[in-house]
Specification:
Pathway: Amino-acid biosynthesis; L-lysine biosynthesis via DAP pathway; DL-2,6-diaminopimelate from LL-2,6-diaminopimelate: step 1/1
Organism: Alkalicaulis satelles
Number of strands: 19
Number of helices: 4
Protein name: Diaminopimelate epimerase
Order of helices and strands: EEHEEEHEEEEEEEHEEEHEEEE
Radius of gyration: 18 Å
Bound molecules: 2,6-diaminopimelic acid
Function: Catalyzes the stereoinversion of LL-2,6-diaminopimelate (L,L-DAP) to meso-diaminopimelate (meso-DAP), a precursor of L-lysine and an essential component of the bacterial peptidoglycan.
Helix content: 10-25%
GO molecular function, one term: diaminopimelate epimerase activity
Low-confidence stretches: none
Number of domains: 2
CATH architecture of the largest domain: Roll
Length: about 270
C-alpha cells in the first residue's frame, strides 16, 4: 500500500497466535528486496479495534506513522463498512473516521510539545530550537520547531525545500546528539495561508514521498511560529495531505491511499 506515495508493506496479523517480533535484520533484508519505507502490522488489541505497529526500513520499531495509520484505517473501513474505529499504537491511542469520499481521516492524538516529550537531550524552547545546521554551499538553517506525534520531528522553515541537499544535511540532523532517539527532519515552505510545501528526511527511512506525522508536525510548528493558522494542506512530493490542529491539541490527517496488491499468507504464518 501507499499513502501519498509513502510506501508500506502491511501485514494483517490480527489472527496471528502471538505478537510479531521481526528481527531488525529481517526487516532490513526484506527492505533490500522490496521497496517500502515502513513495514506495518495490524494486531489484535483488547482495548481497540486493532493495534498498529510500525518498523522503519532500517529495522527499528517506532511509535507512529501517520500515513500508515491512514492506510490501515482505510483497509479496515473497506473490510468492515464501519465509519469509525479506534487504533492502539506505541505512540498512543488514535481514532479514524470514514470520510464521505470513502477516505479515512485519522486523529493522530495530541501534538506533544515539551522538550522531554520530543525528546531533546537538554531543556530548550521547542517553538524555535536553539539549533542549526550549516549548508554545504554556504548559509545555515536555524531555529526549527520541535514536535512529537508519538515520534520526534524537527521542522525547518526554508524558502525552497527542493533546493536543499537533503541527502547531505538530512542524516546529519537525524543523528545529531540533540535528539537522543534521532529525529525526522522536515523542510517546509509556507506558500499561502493554508498551503505548506514539505519534504521530510525520515528517521530510519530517508527521503520519502510523504510523511504523515511530518505533515502534522509541520502544521503545528508553523502555527506556533506564527506562520499559519491551525488548518492547511501539506503538499508532499507524493500528494496533498489536509491537516488540522484542533483546539483540544489533537492533529487530524487525511489524504490519498492506494492498495497496490495483496497476498494471502499460509495459515499458521508467524506462529
Ligand atoms: N520515520 C518515522 C516513522 C514513519 C513516519 C511516516 N512515514 C508517517 O507517515 O508519519 C519515525 O521514525 O518516527
Amino acid at each position: 500500500m501507499n499513502g501519498a506515495g509513502n510506501a508500506f508493506i502491511l501485514i494483517d496479523a490480527r489472527g496471528a497466535p502471538a505478537p510479531l517480533a521481526p528481527a531488525p535484520d529481517a526487516v532490513l533484508a526484506l527492505a533490500e528486496s522490496h521497496a517500502f519505507d515502513q513495514l506495518l502490522a495490524l494486531e489484535a488489541d483488547e482495548g481497540a479495534d486493532a493495534r498498529l505497529r510500525v518498523w522503519n526500513r532500517d529495522g527499528g520499531e517506532v511509535g507512529a506513522c501517520g500515513n500508515g495509520t491512514r492506510a490501515a484505517a482505510w483497509l479496515m473501513f473497506q473490510e468492515s463498512g464501519a465509519d469509525r474505529l479506534a487504533l492502539a499504537s506505541a505512540g498512543g491511542p488514535m481514532a479514524a473516521r470514514r470520510r464521505s469520499d470513502g477516505g479515512a481521516e485519522v486523529d493522530l492524538g495530541p501534538a506533544r510539545l515539551d522538550w522531554r516529550e520530543i525528546p531533546l537531550a537538554r531543556q530548550m524552547d521547542t517553538v524555535r530550537l536553539d539549533y542549526g545546521v550549516d549548508l554545504p554551499g554556504g548559509g545555515r538553517l536555524e531555529g526549527p520547531g520541535a514536535v512529537s506525534m508519538g515520534n520526534p520531528h524537527a521542522v525547518f522553515f526554508v524558502d525552497d525545500p527542493d533546493a536543499l541537499p537533503l541527502h547531505e544535511i538530512g542524516p546529519r540532523i537525524e543523528h545529531d546528539r540533540l535528539f537522543p532517539e534521532r529525529v525526522n527532519a522536515g523542510f517546509a515552505a509556507v506558500l499561502g495561508p493554508d498551503l505548506i510545501r514539505l519534504k521530510v528526511w525520515e528517521r530510519g527511512a530517508g527521503l520519502t514521498q510523504a510523511c504523515g506525522t511530518g505533515a502534522a508536525a509541520a502544521l503545528v510548528a508553523a502555527c506556533r511560529q506564527g506562520r499559519i493558522g491551525r488548518q492547511a494542506v501539506i503538499r508532499a512530493d507524493g500528494g496533498d495531505l489536509p491537516v488540522r490542529w484542533s483546539a483540544d491539541g489533537h492533529v487530524h490527517l487525511a489524504g490519498p491511499v492506494v492498495l497496490e496488491g495483496a497476498v494471502k499468507l499460509p495459515s499458521g504464518f508467524g506462529g
